[in-house]
Amino acid sequence: MKFTKMHGAGNDYVYVNAFKQDRDWPEISRMISDRHTGIGADGLIIAIPSEKADFQMRMFNADGSEGEMCGNGIRCLVAFAIDEGIVKKSEKMKTVETGAGILTVTPEFNGSEMTYASVSMGYPVFEPSKVPVNLSVEDWPILDYRLTVDGYELELTFVSMGNPHAVAFIDDDVDNFPLESVGPKVENHSLFPNKVNFEITNVLTESHVKTRVWERGSGITMACGTGACAVVAAARLKNLVGDCVDVELPGGVLGVRWPGCGELLMRGPVKTVFKGEWEG
User: Fold this and answer.
1) 10 Å Cβ neighbour count for 1?
2) pLDDT in tens, 137-194
3) Is the distance from CB of 53 to CB of 97 less than 8 angstroms?
4) CA–CA separation, 131 vs 97, rounded Å?
5) Which residues contact 132 (CB under 8 A, 6 or more apart)?
6) CA distance linking residue 184 with residue 149, whole number of Å
7) Which helix (H) or strand (E) covers residue 115, if one does?
8) Residue closest to 220 by CA, chosen among 195, 188, 250
9) Residue 39 Cα to chain centre, angstroms
10) Under DSSP, is residue 134 helix (H, G, I), strand (E, B) or coil?
11) How high is the pLDDT of residue 106?
């Protein structure tokens, strides 16, 4: 099985052209994601045919579970699709069918190499039943839901970017927060029927936030595109930031623009690491 290893702001995946092959992708994702016995990645992303868009994206987390979307992954997948000849480089915008709907990606090139891309990430969803969150409330969005986990009292904002997110804004430096122990307990809390991605954030200025992410099914990752968007949507509703925000993550910076309505626009880097063949 031929593959390409890529990352966007350190959020790394293995990419496979699955137009002419069908395999046990959840099992393959578990095997190749292992950083000791596999290729090493946050998961697997495959390109398959679509009747609605240029092609379709399926993404699998490191534990084999399938996610709806990956903001960093979709940027890299478009670069991969261009390299594989699935779409033409000359076409300015590419459409990708995902579990979160059809999204538009606009590549940016440095010479012949695609180095950045902007993604129309869709509309943030705040209605609890659609995030989903096990809460019966009439008034939403929910911006400060108090949840105590491991002795930490978190004030959570719930957002769906096609996948579920719980965002906590904290005063202490996110680098000192025990995400490795609190993260899995938030992810698997009974409040979230489909589990949840968990972001902790420091608001540094109205145009700069610092975030760490516990991703559902993968654990701590270097970056999360949908998470960055969820953070900005939550911060914007709470009047903590302006329309254009740099989201600083351990793996790099993602730019997110949202004026408080309409679709979010995210811009971030694309990097190919290596190519190879998997014989596992």
Assistant:
1) 15
2) 889 999 999 999 999 999 999 999 999 999 999 999 999 999 999 999 999 999 999 9
3) yes
4) 20
5) 160, 164, 192, 193, 194
6) 10
7) strand 113-120
8) 250
9) 20
10) coil
11) 97
Helices (H) and strands (E) in the chain, counts: 4, 18
Report domain extents, the chain. 2-120+268-277, 128-262
Band of residue 39 on the pLDDT scale cut at 50, 70, 90:
very high
Q: What is the DSSP secondary structure assignment for residue 233, as one 8-state letter?
A: H
Please report, as a single letter, which amino acid is at residue 94: K
Closest CA to 198 of 237, 225, 167, 176: 167
Mean pLDDT of 186-207: 98
- How many residues are recorded in the chain? 280
CATH architecture observed for domain 2-120+268-277: Roll (3.10)
Tokens 């987390």 — which residue?
Answer: 61
Same fold, 2-120+268-277 and 128-262: yes
* Active-site annotation holds for 70: yes
In the numeric block, the tokens 């145009």 are attached to 207
Q: How far apart are CA 271 and CA 113, in angstroms?
A: 9
Which helix (DSSP H) or strand (DSSP E) does residue 155 occupy? strand 152-160
Token output for 274: 């290596």
To the nearest 10°, report the CA torsion of 263, 228, 246, 55: -60
Residue with tokens 């910076």: 253
What CATH architecture is 128-262?
Answer: Roll (3.10)
224 has catalytic annotation: yes
